[in-house]
TrEMBL record:
<dbReference type="Pfam" id="PF01636">
    <property type="entry name" value="APH"/>
</dbReference>
<dbReference type="InterPro" id="IPR002575">
    <property type="entry name" value="Aminoglycoside_PTrfase"/>
</dbReference>
<protein>
    <recommendedName>
        <fullName>Aminoglycoside phosphotransferase domain-containing protein</fullName>
    </recommendedName>
</protein>
<dbReference type="InterPro" id="IPR011009">
    <property type="entry name" value="Kinase-like_dom_sf"/>
</dbReference>
<feature type="domain" description="Aminoglycoside phosphotransferase">
    <location>
        <begin position="4"/>
        <end position="224"/>
    </location>
</feature>
Amino acid sequence: MHHIEKLDKGWSDDDKYILHVDDEKYLLRLSNLNQKNFKIREYELIQKCYESGLPVQKPIEHGEADGHYYILLEWVEGEETTIKLPELPESEQYRLGVEAGMHLWKLHQMDVQQPEEPWESKMNMKINRKISMYDACDYKFQKGHLFLEYIEGDRHLLQNRRQVLHHGDYHVGNMIIDADYSLHIIDFNRHDVGEPWEEFNRIVWSAQTSPAFASGQINGYFSDDVPEAFWRLLLLYISANMLSSLPWGVPFGQAQIEIFMEQADEIMDWYDDLRTVIPSWYRSFS
């Protein structure tokens, strides 16, 4: 081994290192041993994706070492999608978004045992927790009541929904563009099982970086035939996410609070104060 380089990017609790071995590079993720079962499932999901041809990091090995659980993956060379996308023509941003949508659709087709708990029950508990967090928070969105009203009016849409494997944090911040302008998906450390369309709840971050990419992701996933029900559920998921984002951001300081305040205002602009369910950024590229 030539040398080890600490990697401090990202919000994960994992300790991350780049290992340089001869001419090869690897990503080493170290987790608490109490995360062992979760990390085993994470590795198995990455392996499943890799074997199915999805552009993820090649899994090398995993196990226990020195009081940690580790995952070792091949390093992906490229640039962060959040940085690279704005430099590209809109047509290329859109093409990469379509690619991202097709990859996500393929992930959602993988076999998984349906959980005993129905999605309606699971998601409603999650929503109630997010509302409680928001209610207890000292900060409030100027139009936060609109998020609450929309949620209460559309909870019924959660009934009778199948569940699939989730990446768990699917947006431009967890994607890499390589030298051939192909997309790679990284960071499965929030993987889960849930309703397929909930996986779009982070598309806000993608749309802020590139409306063309976000539009392409939706069209790629649905093969250009987006059901009306998707838009209503997406807005439900985005509304719930926004409510919990503010209390989550408070410990990180004023700058993070302001990011979420501005994001909430932007969402209200996209959705005309939630009077429409199709965001303006999508309409401009459809």
